Amino acid sequence: MRTVLSLLSISLLACSCSDNDTATGSAPVSKPVPVTVTKVERQPFTDTTVAIGNLRSEESVEITANVTERIDSLHFEDGEYVKEGQILAELSKSEETAMLSVAQSELKEQQREIERLQNLTRQNAVAEVTLDERFTQRDMAEGKIEQISSMLRDLTITAPFNGIIGLRRISPGALVEPGTVITTVDKIEKMKLDFPVPEVFLNDLKPGTRVEAKSPAFPDDIFEAEIATVDSRVDPVTRSIEVRAILQNKDRTLRPGMLMTVSLQRNDREALALPERAIVPFGNKHSVYVVNEDNTVRLADVELGVRRPGYVEVTNGLTEGTTVVTDGILSLSNGATVEVAGEFDGPAPAFDPTNQAAE
Question: Which partner for 196 in 21, 97, 123, 240 could form a disulfide, CB atoms 3.0-4.6 Å apart?
Answer without folding.
Answer: 240
